[in-house]
Amino acid sequence: MLSEAETTQISKYLSLVLRHKPEMIGLALDENGWTDVPTLLHALSRRQITLSLADLRHVVATNNKQRFAFNDDQTRIRANQGHSVEVALGYEEKQPPALLYHGTTVRYVGDILEEGLKKQSRHHVHLSADEATARTVGQRRGKPIVLGVKAAEMAAAGHSFYQSANGVWLTEHVPPAFIEPLPE
Fold it and tell me: Do the Cβ atoms of 92 and 125 come closer than 8 Å?
């Protein structure tokens, strides 16, 4: 069985190849972001990353952010969201809760309040359903700041929302009028 450190390291590597650089290991994703599990395992082994199917299942099941998903018979795998490569994840539009959250750091707050939240190189802006998750996301790059997003108001104004398989809320852009800094 993989150690916690190995599991984390493999999870990060899978995030890289399944979300951003599949070509780095000679992998191809289909139009919906899926790749065959045996193909992935073989591509990893060519990079001296020996992973059994049981190990891969462990990485997927224990990922705290549930970044990956298998298809029903576990013969295909994909990242749930966060791609910078072109994929159509097939999520259906969904009515969001009244308030969603975005975690960031102090240095970006001014720009966000002026320009809104942009998807940058990703397909969507990522929003959390709870403040604690947003705070954890913001901590990755410094002192976290949590912003509230008036999601129901945005939806009423015609903005589309989707929810990924792991519960992350997705939208194209959050205009500044729908963003409010939350007390620390």
Answer: no
**Span 92-116, pLDDT tens digits:** 899 999 999 999 988 899 999 999 9
Contacts of 143 (CB under 8 A, 6+ apart): 105, 106
Taken in order of first residue, the domains within the chain and their CATH numbers are 4-79 (1.10.10.970), 100-181 (3.20.170.30)
**Nearest residue to 104 via CA among 150, 137, 148, 149:** 137
Q: CB neighbours of 107 closer than 8 A, spacing ≥ 6? A: 142
Strand pairing report for 76-79 and 35-36: antiparallel
Rg (CA), the chain: 18
pTM of the model: 0.68
The answer to whether 83 touches 19, Cβ cutoff 8 Å, is yes
